[in-house]
Amino acid sequence: MSQTAPSTKRGSAPKALSVVTNDALNVVDSSGWLEYFVGSDRAALFAPAIENTERLIVPVISIYEVFKRFRIARTQDDAERAAELMQRSTVVDVDLTLVLSAAANGLPLADSLIYATALAHGATLWTQDGHFEGLPGVKYFSKL
Questions:
Q1: pTM higher than 0.90 for the full model?
Q2: Which domains are assigned to the chain?
Q3: Tens-place pLDDT, residues 15-27
Q4: Alpha helices per DSSP H over 39-108
């Protein structure tokens, strides 16, 4: 049995001008994706990771959270566009190994799956969610 969750490459992304060129893998928490998609003043914090699609891992639970939020707060079309853009990077599905790892980290369900995905892939998690502050492998941006 594999020690990491299965992943698939979906779609292709246009090259962005402000792409991070290092070899680090990244995962962006759902809150970061939402900031980026709405173009908030905090979007620039997450842009380097999001725009580097070749080095970006997207937990499938993040697509769920962003899609659900956009369907409620915006439109079905906005939700579908966001989900499509998120799938231009490597999407990681949930499997038994990931679930068991997530259950051991003490975070709420979606956060635990996102963090476990980052850990399983040796990726840095970019977030502004206080649940992650101080955890290893996390690039945390305080809202204060």
A1: no
A2: 26-140 (3.40.50.1010)
A3: 333 334 457 999 9
A4: 43-50, 60-73, 76-86, 96-103
